[in-house]
Amino acid sequence: MLMKRVLTVVLAGLTVASMAAGAPQAQRASQKEPPRDGQRGGSPVNRFKWWQDPRVVGDLRLAPEQSARIDEIWETWFKQNKLVADDLMRREEQISNLIFGNDVTEAEVLKQAEQAETLRATLNKSRTLMLYRVRRVLSVDQRNKLADIQKAQDRERRGGRPPDKGPGER
Question: Which residues contact 55 (CB under 8 A, 6 or more apart)?
Answer without folding.
Answer: 34
